[in-house]
Design a protein that fits this description.
alpha+beta, five-stranded mixed β-sheet, elongated
Length: 201
Amino acid sequence: MRAKMSKKQQGFTIIELIIVVVILGLLAAAAIPRFTDVSSDAEDAALEGVAGGFASAVGIVRGEWELSGRPKGASGTGAGAEVSMDQIQLYVDGSTGYPVSGDNANAHDENLAATDCVSVMQSILQGAPTVTTNFNNLNETRYFTYVTQDSAAGNDMCVYYLANTIKNETEAPSGDDYLTVGNAFVYNPRNGGVSIHSNNQ
């Protein structure tokens, strides 16, 4: 005769389930902040990469201006000085040699327009990211740009915002907003400086 085997089925007790839920909650609480930091870190890295390439390109343009004999332009205001980079003509301020426009012969560091900032980025960077002056077009572009003034020197500067970092703003940034809103880099054509401003919390 076969011996009868008794099988007793046993599941988790309520206490064991509560312990598992608490452990999963602790793991989630530790992991979620790390995942949110990843997007901030990615935004910072993207901005730093483009700003670094931009700063290098500005230096190369200025070097070409020096090699070309420091052309001044015809106007005497610093406007209209031309240099050629890989068969791309662009305009530099005739006083400093730093790029001020890709297509505006009248641009110099005291009369920039936002469209000059767009054309500078597109002219000096190979495979430049998309950039716009239209705040309502942020979903279709990588960077938003506007012109502000250097309060110390009085010249104009280009502000390039990473569009993704200002999508939730109700109005376009202006002036010194880059110090407190979104992630941006600022280009100063008076001295060729490029400064990064990250406002991730």
